[in-house]
Design a protein that fits this description.
Strand content: 15-25%
Largest sheet: 11 strands, mixed
Number of strands: 15
Shape: elongated
Number of helices: 16
Structural class: alpha+beta
């Protein structure tokens, strides 16, 4: 007689020898039979198994996608800092803090002096203009106060170039127009739309109070100082002629440096500009890109990993529910197996294997989906996808562990079913 797989005997056979009862050795469940039973249980209802593992698929997929996208975005943050922030230095007028009697920290030829510092590519002075009471920025002198919140900034041509602007129309005012104190302005696209300027074909003008200014150019974007897009920019000489010198401490200098020279420029610039009082000028070097990358990466990871954890919990509840229903549906089968020699631990291991198979399958599918999401986003953004190998190898194990944990209670319930009661049902 062929014995069923659940009644494999190891060692001696149970028999009567010379009238003496020989106790049969304990039965065992071979791992091949265990896998075959688990796969059979999963494939018996494929639609239900697929829906059951969906939560694990979403959880593991979100886990892989979050870590991959965070690593990819962090790499792009590093590149952007190397290209922009790591090459930016700001010099601030600190004369009020050091000498309240002084009025202006920067010398008259500050832009010429700063260009002599090694590593400086472009540098210029800018400051916010304080308009007299009653003067507003408008698109027409007959409509006063409509855009009272539009700021005016004095920015030299070199400061505009250091901001690395992108022109939508027109051009930037140059040193010639700035030195002649011409009434010209450069505005951001959103400011132009608010003022009713749709293009430069009709030579539009902007009015600051009663003074008209010709719009030389419209900016669509800037790499540095995004607040310039929301401002009306005028040449510094024009601003001084109309509204006076900047207030003490209001002026600053924007410096674009060569890559790797920002820290050196920040150290040397105050001495190069004011050798007599270098403390009048405060240099602000670029921040550490690693600190911001860690901060941004941690914020993204905490948010989306929480969502991934919720998905895993939902998947675990689904697997536990399905496994428990399967135990109730297969009560007769469990009783028959117990009657043929299967022990409680064998039943426990079988149902744990089935739930682990559901979780492991969901983990594999979720890992594949997560990697595809990272690659698709990176290709769409023209980035280099970054996925750590440890994440790819760990993610399926997380799905497997979720499935096993979800099957603990149903497997325990199945092991406690008595064979006689199960067969009676």
């Amino acid at each position: 007689m062929i014995r069923p797989s659940w009644f494999r005997r190891s060692g001696r056979r149970g028999r009567r020898d010379r009238g003496l009862d020989v106790a049969p050795p304990p039965s065992r469940l071979h791992w091949r039979d265990l896998l075959a039973e688990a796969v059979s249980g999963v494939l018996q209802r494929p639609a239900r198994s697929a829906l059951t593992s969906l939560g694990t698929v979403l959880g593991v997929g979100a886990f892989v996608a979050v870590l991959g996208l965070t690593a990819t975005a962090s790499a792009q943050i590093d590149d952007r800092f190397n290209a922009l922030t790591a090459t930016e230095v700001t010099l601030q007028d600190a004369v009020v803090e050091q000498d309240p009697m002084a009025e202006y920290a920067f010398p008259a030829d500050v832009e010429e002096l700063i260009r002599r510092v090694n590593g400086v590519r472009e540098a210029g002075v800018l400051w916010p203009v304080k308009l007299p009471e009653g003067q507003r920025v408008t698109g027409s002198p007959l409509v006063d106060g409509v855009h009272a919140d539009t700021p005016v900034r004095a920015a030299s041509p070199r400061a505009l170039r250091a901001a690395q602007p992108t022109l939508a129309e027109g051009r930037l005012y140059d040193d010639h127009l700035a030195d002649r104190r011409e009434p010209v302005v450069v505005v951001g696209r959103s400011v132009a739309q608010r003022l009713g300027i749709t293009g430069l074909d009709t030579d539009p003008a902007v009015f600051i109070g009663d003074q008209s200014f010709t719009v030389a150019g419209i900016l669509s974007d800037v790499e540095r100082r995004p607040e310039l897009l929301l401002s009306v920019m005028v040449p510094p000489a024009t601003a001084e002629a109309l509204w006076g010198a900047p207030e003490p401490g209001a002026a600053e200098m924007l410096i674009a440096t060569e890559l790797g020279a920002a820290s050196q420029v920040a150290r040397e610039a105050p001495v190069a500009l004011r050798a007599d009082h270098p403390e009048y000028i405060r240099a602000v070097p670029p921040p550490d890109p690693r600190g911001l990358r860690t901060s941004v990466g941690d914020d993204l990871s905490q948010l989306f990993l929480a969502l991934a954890g919720i998905c895993l919990v939902i998947g675990a509840v689904g697997i536990a529910n399905t496994t428990l229903v399967s135990v109730l549906e297969r009560t007769g089968e469990i009783g028959l197996r117990r009657a043929l020699g299967a022990r409680g631990r064998h039943v426990t291991v079988q149902f744990l294997t089935e739930s682990g198979a559901l979780g492991g399958l969901g983990g594999l599918v979720g890992t594949s989906i997560g990697v595809l999401v990272v690659v698709a986003v990176a290709v769409g953004r023209e980035w280099s996808p970054v996925v750590h190998p440890l994440v790819v190898t760990t993610a399926p194990l997380i799905g497997l562990a979720t499935g096993v944990a979800a099957g603990l209670y149903p497997a325990w319930r199945a092991a406690r079913i008595e064979p006689v009661e199960a067969l009676r049902r």
